[in-house]
Amino acid sequence: MAKQGKTHKEALSQVDRDREYEPAEAITLLKSLPGPKFDESVEIHIRTGLNVRHADEQLRGTIAMPHGLGKEVKIAVFAQGDNAKEAEAAGADIVGAEDLAKKIEEGFTDFDIAIATPDLMPVVGRLGRILGPSGKMPNPKVGTVTMDVTKAITESKAGKVEYRTDRTAIVHLVIGKKSFPEQQLLENYAAVIEELQRAKPSAAKGKYLRTITVTSTMGPGIKVDPSRTRDILGEATPAAA
């Protein structure tokens, strides 16, 4: 623990906590910081100016990360009959119907994404109190309630992730691993910013993206200039490119 504390303190000393870095500069700095021996995830936390208590200022959707997330995505699919066979052939990690629902009610949550065919939503519906808080509840708006389970599984395995604002209007996302090349992390970062700009609710007032912070699993937060939303990839340093 002492060694970890020393490493974190060293990393913290290299970050100007009062400065908002350019996106490419922030990624370069993040990768240069000392850290633990395991390959940390790289996270982005975006505080928006949305009033999430209003229905017309809700923010939710999906993003296809250009370079994935650098981890195996475990997918549970609620399907039966031919749809179940299709899901298994497409690479689903677990497939079921009532049996899967019962397993989840008993405490099984070892999966990242849940997909369901429309006919099984009455079964999935009763799992809302379990899957809802963890963001795993299938939803037609983000493509996880569908008859095309092959497409949904393939996209999820390739790095398609769901995003939403939490109760404090912040979006939290993983954009890759620290071992990713700088350019790949920057392209995933740019994909997130582009998607949030595209999905900006028409009812949003005032400053939309208020603060942006990137960090690794055990590293310090690095503030990124929230006004830098265009030509993000053009700002990349030669080392990142």
Automatic annotation (TrEMBL):
Signal peptide annotation: none
Q: Per the record, a Pfam family?
A: Ribosomal_L1
Q: Could you give one GO CC term from the UniProt record?
A: ribosome
Show the InterPro entries listed in the entry: Ribosom_uL1_bac-type, Ribosomal_uL1, Ribosomal_uL1-like, Ribosomal_uL1/biogenesis, Ribosomal_uL1_3-a/b-sand
Name the coiled-coil region(s).
none
Would you say which domain of life the source belongs to? Answer: Bacteria
Q: Where is this region: Disordered?
A: 220-241
Keywords, comma-separated and alphabetical: Repressor, Ribonucleoprotein, Ribosomal protein, RNA-binding, rRNA-binding, Translation regulation, tRNA-binding
Record note on quaternary structure: Part of the 50S ribosomal subunit.
| Family statement drawn from the similarity comment of this UniProt entry | Belongs to the universal ribosomal protein uL1 family.
Instruction: Name the job this protein performs.
Output: Protein L1 is also a translational repressor protein, it controls the translation of the L11 operon by binding to its mRNA. Binds directly to 23S rRNA. The L1 stalk is quite mobile in the ribosome, and is involved in E site tRNA release.
User: What PANTHER family does the record point to?
Assistant: 54S RIBOSOMAL PROTEIN L1, MITOCHONDRIAL, LARGE RIBOSOMAL SUBUNIT PROTEIN UL1M
Annotated protein name in UniProt:
Large ribosomal subunit protein uL1
Lineage, opening ranks: Bacteria, Bacillati, Actinomycetota, Thermoleophilia, Solirubrobacterales
The gene it comes from is rplA
